[in-house]
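User: Hi! Is it possible to get a structure for several chains at once, not just one? Here's what I have:
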Amino acid sequence: MKELIERALDAAERGGASYADVRVVERETEQLTVKNGALEAATSTVSAGFGVRVLVDGAWGFSSSREMHATEAERIGREALEIARASAIAHRVPVELDATPPVTDRYRTPYDEDPFAVSLDDKLRILMDADAAMASVAGVAIREGNLSSGRETKTFASNAGAWIEQEIVESGGGIDATAVNDSELQQRSYPNSFGGQMVTGGFEAVRALDLAGHAQETAELAVALLAAPQCPSGEMDLVLDATQVALQIHESCGHPTELDRVFGTEASFAGTSFLTTDKVGKLRYGSDLVHIDADATAPSGLGTFGYDDEGVPAQNVPLIEGGMLVGYLTSRETGPRIGRQSMGSARAWSWNHIPLIRMTNINLRPGDAGSLEDLIADTRDGIFMSINKSWSIDDRRLNFQFGDQAGWIIKNGRRTQLVKNPTYTGITPRFWGSLDAICSPSEWTLWGLPNCGKGEPMQIGHVGHGAAPARFRGVKVGVGRW
Amino acid sequence: MVVGREDLDELLDRALAHSRVDQTEALYLGQDSALTRFANNQIHQNVREHDANLQVRVVHGERVGVAATNRLDEDGIRTVVERAAAIAARSAPNPHAALLPEPDGRDHDPDLGYVAATAEAGAEIRAEGARAVIASGEAKGLETAGSFATSVMTVAVANSRGLRASHRSTRAALLTVMMDGFASGAASGYAQAGSGDVARIDAEAIGAEAARKGDDMRGASELDPGEYEVILEEYAVTGLLEYLSYIGFSGLAHEEGRSFMDLGTRVMGENVAIWDDGTNPSGLPSPIDFEGVARKRVDLIRDGVANAVVHDASTGARAGTGSTGHALPAPNLIGPMALNLFMGPGTTPRDELIAGVKRGVWVTRFHYINPVHPKKAILTGMTKDGTFLIEDGRLSRPLMNFRFTQSIPEAFSDVRAASRETKLVPGEFFGAATAPALHLGSFNFTGVTAAEGSA
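Assistant: Yes, the chains can be modeled jointly so their relative placement is included. Here is the combined structure:
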């Protein structure tokens, strides 16, 4: 590997690159899905390769290959140079990188139980036990459970002298029960939708989920939703569970604080941002209770690592303080444009992608409203919604609409009628401005979100969001005709 | 690096030779792709990728295992077969596991949609295209962003039941968004083109279309949300078709009762026809699926009636129809998918569609569409890059963007007119669709992004 990296960097430097870096990556994944009592999918995947990124006359070029030998490294290095030179045909402002010092270091995800060392039998038993518990509930049409494991080993090196080796290990799983009749389809997931919960860590995190122990109540709720009345429409107080608060953070705070979006470089696909740099320290993003941090050091977060893919160390940086916009997610290219060093959020999905600004763990600090039941008891009339099933937001991250799997009407501080297809909509700063209570640290969970799409070509991002249940006043609920 | 057909055959044969189980399938997916991205009137990303994967599926009785690798040397091939076999040997039986497909005697053109000029396109061609688009935006005082991508995709399948199939295709796609700042109501325009042949991408025309639209959007103002007649441009229509395919045209979604496709029932207006055809060269063809089965044309909606859904070997066996050639790579949890969609044209010249609208909304495209209720095919999303009020058959003023929440079969039940011209639009996430512009009797806008919100 050393020769491969040196040949690529040497080719880049000899060809005129002012800066060059190489990432050699191997990603190993295992996915198991049990559906209706049978092993529906068992997949083991390995993808390995390297990418060379060069800066020539202030313009980027990148090329990548799966062929891991020194001759190919030299060829890919030269190809990256050619691509960078072609960029000059339509390039004006030279890229300038911040002064992050090159580092030599190693990082490894801490874990107790290697997920790849757990036998298939053990994993299947977990899924089959959960499936059997769901099957005990009459009326469930589709039962699914999944476990996923990942290991990424990567070496980052630059012509500035950086050499960083990392091993990131991920584990996760979840279950879904679906009930169907002629006109309705209702699903309930545990502990979250989109695959459940995923963390950086070992298989101990999967065992802690106790999928089988939650399977029956999950299935019962899916069936109950079929017969539940439609969510009412109107303006009301809204209590969200921690999983939905996590997605709300993702869409309406995480994405708009990505500084590449703010500068317009994602405009053609993901979009831009309403959080323009003139608003730092001036924009009231939310109520005084809103404190949101980007913390790549949080234990077990799916957005936790040692160094980002530009060699910048993981950090914990505030984005929103007391409701005011104070920071951004940055890279070595974008940080200097607001007079800051990169805070280390440039990551690539794999060896064949360039690093983009990606969320790390974007966390809403917990409040002091006690437990979820305390918060509901403190809410005279309103609605409680739990676990996302639908999401959409405009290109500047202002106008959002979410749908959840289940809702419950709150009357006189009590959770009462179950309702189906609950939705809510709003405008980002008004919505966060209406937040008046966040549950206490005991209710706070760092949720993993493994399906964040961004960039062209599309890259998948693994990110985290720490959240506790929270209450928002006067929200538009029950959107559309049903 | 593009691999020759003989090399592919040898690679797949070597994979099959390593297997000791009943049935084995080897799937090769090769990709050589490049993309030039621009924003703020300059190129800011320029990337290239060479990758190839070998995916092996073994079916041992009712036990199935799948493994994949991009290490294609002898050791890599042997290891991936062993991993797939080991998973199958230790996995639980799946009574729904389908047999691998057999050869059905149908032929296909292995180079349908392959254009050498696209395969050989260098970074300069893409950069020149970007420059032409940027020049159009600058002429109207707009900030230009976009991407110009070229790629070669190779699919080759061999299985132990004697099936052998391969296909290679090229794709070129150019899109641009032109804006006048990021504030609420700021002008923005859009244009996109896709083809198998890079020479057919007219960057100047794309630039001119987006710049004209962006310039016309200056001074956008609010209109109350509600139900309006609409003209949906082809970009908007194909965006909706892509999601209908995702949530409803799959044989698995139908089998599980998740789809709005109640076969034999009228679900849209009788003037609506939607079909899938991976062999039509006017689209972005892909004549075989990822199980190596030649794709059939499937008439999904015929005269407004839900007529058929697409199948892979597994769902086709259970439905009794057989595969229609719409498998995704195994293991396939989301089921088969229609990737080459067509919507039937109407008879109205596109320029005359608007004449039939007394008061309505013109929609260029939608952004961030997602299902709210798959079984009712209720989708939500935002209008983007060209939303106008129509009054007395002409565009009267640009509008702030709306959010819609709408059952699409319901909206397509009142198609007042469709343009006689159609447009090919590459999918945002997968496949491609060819559709006319539509005049719909009603569309439900449930929100509007007004002036900058504040807490």
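The first strand of chain B starts at residue 23 and ends at 39. Chain B touches chain A through 101 residues (CB under 8 Å).

User: Great, thank you!
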